[in-house]
TrEMBL record:
Intracellular or extracellular location(s): Membrane
Topology in membrane: Multi-pass membrane protein
Domain ABC transmembrane type-1, residue spans: 228-517
Protein name: P-loop containing nucleoside triphosphate hydrolase protein
InterPro entries according to UniProt: AAA+_ATPase (IPR003593), ABC1_TM_dom (IPR011527), ABC1_TM_sf (IPR036640), ABC_transporter-like_ATP-bd (IPR003439), ABC_transporter-like_CS (IPR017871), P-loop_NTPase (IPR027417), Type_1_exporter (IPR039421)
PANTHER family documented for this protein: ATP-BINDING CASSETTE SUB-FAMILY B MEMBER 10, MITOCHONDRIAL, ATP-DEPENDENT PERMEASE MDL1, MITOCHONDRIAL
Positions of transmembrane segments: 80-99, 223-243, 275-295, 350-369, 375-393, 455-481
Region: Disordered, residue numbers: 168-204
């Protein structure tokens, strides 16, 4: 259609401006607009192109009107003009209608290959012997297990294909991969080896090339869009390449008609034609650039969202030990800044690299075509200068990088001081913090000045180099022109193109650098995506019938993957019978929370087995297991959503009655009703609008709402004042009387667990004593010492006021 417009323009400038040709031109432009609208309709995405389209149409109308007014075509052609206006209005209306009906917003692409974000563990074929061993001679036959419904095989395509088949097949988490199904005991075997990821094959993507391949894989759903973008890019880049040629030809025509006495420059045919070509080519360039940007930007946005989505899923399924190892900041920056950099590779970087390469080599070729000797000399000098400026540029960049580091340090100081403002105030450490900040601030100033100084040198160096090149071309080219070996027009064109070559050299090298930076970011992202956790989050066996809530530890030993030498739990044997209330006490660091982590299967033991209802938890579906266990920790995190949603967390289908019931059981109902919006009150970040005790009770309600068969409280009431603690205590007793839920209560205040069925004293990873309160007191061991110590403290505290 742009060609039509170009032809129209040429016709306008060409010939005698007869009404006949004018209406022809109008017809062409109108046809161009109709065609444009049709093509855009086919793409169905004017919501992005709305304004460019409208303004192009408006410009076309304005152009036609101006032309007709100027060249008296109006009287003859007003019928045609009216037609054009009508057609354009109709087209615009069509376009707007298409915008409204467009369904392109918010989707990731029609054929997203990465739909299986939470792959099920392929525990479908458990070897009989394994199950028999792991369920520890239980009476049930392994065949009595019911399997989780299998995922649709189409959906269960591996996350990545191609290079990653191997990885997928090796890791148990993407178990439905083509490589076959990993047996259930896979995790178990690894666990017993003390494996924290050692059994998993290392990801294939440790090179830039494979990062690029993975990226292309994720870009697949937008292949059409990207190919279109590439086509548009080729057209626009070619048009851009041709522009200086027409400019120089026009200039040559102007120069040649200098003082020739003709009244109108437009009568110069050479000028007129080249101007028309210039306008036409510029229009082609502008229009196709717009299409290219639209196509690639859309692909980039969708690609980024797709990668982020898969990355988020990959992060969420990692082992707890993975989160111990990598901080929140690291993982979130993968998700934000790294993903952005990666997304930019396809559009911004690749686009520019292709466009500038085309432009660079095209211009260079044209230089050689114009005058090979001059071109040879030019390219040789330009390359040398380019290397020099690059070196200098990388020096400046290094300085800049240093500034970033120093800035980061200063920001970190500020971040911490601001975040811990209360602490700073409490310790009257404002001056100390100021001193700290001033120091890094001063470093920043120093580094910045250094870099600015270098930059102030860099700019003139570049300017000198550029002008020296122009100087060389002018001198040598001028020499050829005076000797008649080159035309003036060619020299003008040469100058224009040499400028293009220089610009493109710089752009290309910059773009290649950021391309590699993007690939670096991508490497880190795909590393996480391909990192297979050792513990599954879903998939496995679900025992039939109603769960009883029995917990058993058989000779369990455990060390954190981060410090495998240090056994935090050793040879621990323990049984919590259904409905039993067991308390665990002991000095801090004794291993109580680690025990809780093992029961929830945050980690696998390095020795022995943990059994729930008689089944090794390693063969059970972790999701099912965790559904049977309610847990409340010492500093419970509440989400920034309503109280109701916090209590019904993870179960959006929970009725309001169930939520109320859970809140009542946790003695939270009354205070929740007093909140501004009751159950609909949205909690602030980390639930700051609630007091510690209130937060704790909401967290208890959240655990109870799932009606767990085993309730674990890890120092859940430690932060409560005595009266709230007493309330929760009574609530728990009532709950226990009603539901006979098994309980494991890790407590700090011994007074709260005196009525437990059994008390365990855990010290240095061992259960050193167990029995009822009276039994343990009578034994006069560790427990009685702990009790008397706490009694003394409480007495002292009681004396104070
Ligand atoms: N994520 C972890 N990584 C490595 N070591 C840990 C981790 N969490 C706790 N530990 C260590 O394990 C030991 C037991 O801690 P924990 O189970 O929290 O004790 P308790 O809950 O009884 O106070 C401590 O020595 C502690 O330093
Ligand atoms: Mg603890």
């Amino acid at each position: 259609m742009t060609t039509c417009a170009v032809v129209g323009c040429v016709q306008i400038f060409d010939g005698e401006f007869s009404p006949y040709s004018a209406s022809h031109s109008i017809a062409d432009v109108a046809a161009a607009n109709v065609l444009k609208a049709a093509i855009l309709c086919a793409f169905g995405s004017f919501h992005i192109l709305k304004w460019p389209v409208l303004s192009t149409v408006a410009a076309a109308v304005a152009l036609i009107c101006t032309k007709m007014a100027l060249f008296r075509g109006w009287t003859d052609g007003h019928g045609a003009a009216a037609a054009v206006l009508l057609v354009t209005t109709a087209c615009t209306l069509c376009q707007l209608a298409a915008v409204r009906s467009s369904s392109f917003v918010n989707d990731y692409g029609e054929a997203d290959p990465d739909v299986e974000l939470m792959p099920t563990v392929a525990v479908t074929t458990v070897p009989k012997s394994e199950t028999a061993i792991s369920s520890n001679a239980q009476s049930k036959s392994p065949l009595s297990f019911q399997y989780l419904p299998e995922e649709d095989d189409d959906l269960a395509e591996p996350l990545l294909t191609g290079d990653y088949d191997e990885v997928e097949a090796g890791g148990h988490n993407g178990g439905n991969g083509k490589g076959g199904r990993a047996p259930a005991a896979d995790g178990k075997v690894r666990g017993q080896n003390g494996g924290n990821g050692k059994g998993v094959r290392t990801p294939a993507a440790d090179t830039k090339a494979s990062t690029m391949r993975s990226l292309l894989h994720y870009a697949q759903p937008d292949a059409l869009l990207l190919s279109l973008g590439l086509c548009f890019l080729l057209v626009s880049a070619t048009a851009r390449l041709a522009l200086p040629n027409f400019t120089s030809r026009c200039l040559a025509a102007v120069v040649s008609s200098e003082g020739d006495g003709k009244d109108h420059l437009f009568n110069n045919l050479q000028f007129r034609n080249n101007l028309a070509y210039l306008v036409g080519t510029a229009a082609v360039y502008a229009f196709f650039s717009m299409l290219r940007i639209w196509c690639t930007a859309k692909a980039e946005v969708r690609l980024m969202a797709r990668v982020q989505r898969v990355l988020f899923a990959a992060i969420m399924r990692q082992d707890i030990s993975y989160f111990d190892k990598y901080g929140t900041g690291q993982l979130t920056s993968r998700l934000t800044s790294d993903a952005t950099m990666l997304g930019a590779i396809i559009t911004t970087n690749c686009n520019w690299v292709i466009q500038t390469s085309l432009s660079l080599f095209g211009s260079m070729g044209y230089l050689f075509f114009l005058e090979p000797r001059l071109a040879g000399v030019y390219v040789a000098i330009a390359t040398v200068f380019f290397v020099i400026t690059r070196q200098f540029g990388s020096f400046v960049r290094k300085l800049q990088k240093k500034i970033q580091d120093v800035k980061g340090d200063a920001n970190q100081v500020a971040d911490q001081s601001i975040a811990l403002a209360r602490l700073v105030r409490a310790f009257a450490a404002e001056e100390w913090e100021q001193h700290h900040y001033d120091k890094s601030n001063l470093d920043m100033v120093r580094e910045q000045l250094r870099s600015k100084m270098a930059y102030s040198l860099y700019v003139p160096v570049v300017a000198i180099v550029q002008n020296a090149l122009t100087f060389a071309v002018l001198c040598l080219g001028g020499f050829y022109v005076t000797r008649g070996q080159m035309s003036g027009a060619d020299l003008t064109a040469f100058l224009f193109y040499s400028q293009t070559v220089q610009d493109n050299m710089n752009t290309l090298s910059e773009q290649i650098i950021s391309l590699f930076q993007g690939l670096g970011a991508g490497e880190k992202i795909f590393e996480i995506i391909q990192h297979q956790p050792t513990l599954p989050i879903t998939g496995g066996l679900v025992p039939p019938g109603e769960p009883k809530g029995e917990l058993k530890l058989n000779n369990v030993g455990f060390a954190y993957p981060g410090s495998p030498q240090l056994r935090v739990i050793e040879n621990m044997n323990l049984t919590i019978r259904p409905g039993e209330r067991v308390a665990a006490v002991g000095p801090s660091g004794g291993g109580k929370s680690s025990l809780v982590g093992l029961v929830l299967r945050y980690y696998d033991p390095v020795q022995g087995t943990v059994l729930f209802d008689g089944h090794d938890i390693r063969v059970l579906d972790p999701r099912w297991l965790r559904r049977q266990i309610g847990v409340v920790t010492q500093d419970p995190f509440l989400f920034g959503v309503s109280v109701r949603d916090n209590i019904a967390y993870g179960r959006p289908d929970m009725s309001l009655e169930e939520v109320h019931r859970a809140a009542r059981l946790a003695s939270a109902h009354d205070f929740i009703l007093q909140l501004p919006l009751g159950y609909e009150t949205v909690l602030g970040e980390r639930g700051v609008t609630l007091s510690g005790g209130q937060r704790q009770r909401v967290a208890i309600a959240r655990a109870l709402a799932r009606q767990p068969k085993l309730l674990i409280l890890d120092e859940a009431t430690s932060a409560l004042d005595s009266s709230s603690e007493h309330e929760v205590q009574t609530a728990l007793q009532t709950l226990h009387a009603k539901t006979r839920t098994s309980m494991l209560i890790v407590a700090h205040r011994l007074s709260t667990i005196q009525d437990a069925d059994r008390i365990l004293v855990i010290q240095r990873g061992h259960i050193v004593e167990q029995g009822t309160h009276t039994e343990l007191l009578a034994r006069k061991g560790v427990y009685s010492v702990l009790v008397s110590r706490q009694l003394q403290t409480e007495l002292l505290e009681g004396d104070q006021p």
